[in-house]
Structures are given as C-alpha cells and as structure tokens.
Amino acid sequence: MADLISIDKQYVANTYNRFQIELVKGKGSHIVDINGKEYIDMGTGIGVTAFGFADDEWAAAVSKQAATLQHTSNLYYTEPCAKLAKVLCEKTGLKKVFFSNSGAEANECAIKVARKWAAENKGDDCYTIVTLENSFHGRTITTLAATGQEHYHEHFKPLTNGFIHTPANDIETLKNTVKSNNIAAVMIECVQGEGGVIALDADFVKAVGILAKEYNFLIIIDEVQTGNGRTGKLYAYMNYDISPDIVTTAKGLGGGLPIGAAMLGERVESVLGFGDHGSTYGGNPVCCAGALTVINRLTDELLNEVKAKSRYIFNELNGADGIEYVSGMGLMIGIKTTKPAVEVVKSAMEKGVLCLTAKDKVRLLPALNIPFDDLKNAIDIIKEVAK
Ligand SMILES: Cc1ncc(COP(=O)(O)O)c(C=O)c1O
Question: Is residue 264 a part of any domain in this protein?
C-alpha cells in the first residue's frame, strides 16, 4: 500500500485529502481494504452506490450492456437512453431529459435552459438566477458561481455573472430580491447536502413556488444528492408543496457509473433545440442500463424501508451521549457531535465503519437497501465513538 500511496501522490493531482486506506472490493454494504479489513459502508461513495457495491442486478445490466454495445455517440438512438428518459418522465411528470455525466453538468444544462427561456420570454437582460447561501451546485466556473459558499470561489474569480445568493428559509429577503431584480430562475437543494445536511423549511419551499407564479420565473431543484430515493421519496421536492420546472440529478442515479440528468418540465421542454447543448458521453448506454436498474427498484416498498431506517437512525442518535442533534431527511443524515466530526469519522473507521463529513457534521448516506443488521451495527459503533 505504501507503494500505491507514493504513486498516487506523485501522479494524481493534489485535489483530494484521502484517508490512508486502499479499498479493493465490496459487496452490498460491506467493503474490504488491501489488508483484508472489512468495513460497513455508510457513505456510498458520497451518495452514489444506491444499492451498495457490486449489486447483482446493476452489475449484470452494466456487464451485459458493456459486452453488447458500450458507446455510440449521440448521432444514433440506443435503447437504454430512451428507456431511462421515459421512466424518469413517467415517474416525475416532467417531459424531457437531457443526460450529462455529472451533477455539475446537469446544473449547467439547467442554467442554460433557464437563460434561454428567460431571454425568449422575459427579454435579453433577464438572466439572473437566485440560489441560496450555503448551497452547493458543483465545481465548474458557472456552478461555482451558483454555489452560495464563498470559500469555494477563492482563487477562481471572475466567475460567471448573473447569480444572487439569499439566505435559506428567509422568505422576506427572497421576496425582495425577486421583486427588485429581473429573475430567470430560483435554484434550490431541498436538503442542503455539502452545506451540512440541512432540510429547507416547508413554508420557504412553498413560498418559492408562490413567488415563481407571481414574478414569472423558473424553479430549478438540484437533486444531485437528494434524488433517487435518498430522502424516502423518489425526489426530495416530492416531500414539499412545489412543482419544479427543472430537476437536476446525478450521483445515485448511476449507481456507480457517471451519469447526470436535467429533467425538463412543460414550460421548458422545447427550449433547447438542435445544437444548443450536447455531451459526447451523455446518455451512454452502459451508464443508462445501470441507472435503469436503480430507478426501477425505487418502489413504494423500498421507499418505505428508507423511511423506516431513517426513523431508526434518528431515534437511536437523538439524545445519545456526545450527539448534539441530528439533521436531514430519509437516509441523508447529518450528526452534530460534541467532538470534531473528523475525529468521529476516523474513530469509526478504525472500528470498521466508513462515514462522511459535511461541514462540521458527520454525514451518513448509506445504501438505500442496507440490511437492518448492518445499519444497527454501524449506528452502535458511531454512538460508541461519538461519546
Ligand atoms: C447538490 C449538489 N449539486 C451538485 C453537485 C456536483 O455534482 P458532481 O460532483 O457530480 O459534479 C453535488 C456534489 O456533491 C451536490 O451535492
């Protein structure tokens, strides 16, 4: 492993502060390192492996598609892409899907759609998009501009213009902002993930919908982290009283392969025309074949299971020693511990549980189908190390 670390350090760009473990194989919610040590996984590669590692159904669909036709370009039709778009539209009521390779690119597409829609419907000077303070929308120059956290902006200015950030859950400020600016769209995460796993207030989300009607702007919901069953509904906005025009997603949709999607509602389904947008890999048949197995398994039964596991986690952790409070929704959980979050994550790792952090919290994003026994063992260890 020492060898591998030195190769990685020499040749891979220094953007990641990796833990000193090399992971070699996984099955379900278990993952094994190079020394044979086994861990219960509570992070799913930051919300990606929705049905765990090497899930049989996902792996079979991906392998079959890879051995049949791995890529064609978007000059031709392929079945997995069309089928995935159809099932996403049928399940959400949205009308069309643009496929990308990541969450940031899904958001780039949403921003382009909003700008073109606004130019056509409200005039060329209407391009401003309101996002929330403490949000996270990606790492490209434009999605960084959308991200309402100043520290991500450092070193990369000038960013794309046309973004205003207002405080989450502050209806008055949002109202004044959309009143005094010509707004193309408001973009929100219903649960701010990187911002510390904080669910927006129901009243605030409802107000976004009311203001959108009053001031004629689009609603974009960033479901990159919250989407695909994570919060106990297919998409997190379904927990709220709001009808988005554009929903973006990625992460869990692919189950472990890179795919993003910008789902377009009725008002914007025809905004993009030939040549307006594109991506070489977008709608890749292998990624789409895997994603189809994810989406098709997000049944009511599975989503109820997600909610039951969520209740278990909240009940176990709320009021436990060393735990100040628990936030989030479904299997997207933030834990404010008395000890620094990184310390808790490291101790949990030593005891065989992999967790994440989000700001000053321990963050849990376990597989949606994590067996109850594994969940219980992991939560027991987290409680023990948080004390
Ligand atoms: C809400 C949200 N939007 C966008 C992104 C960016 O996604 P990606 O890393 O796939 O570009 C993330 C990643 O964490 C996210 O949580």
Answer: yes
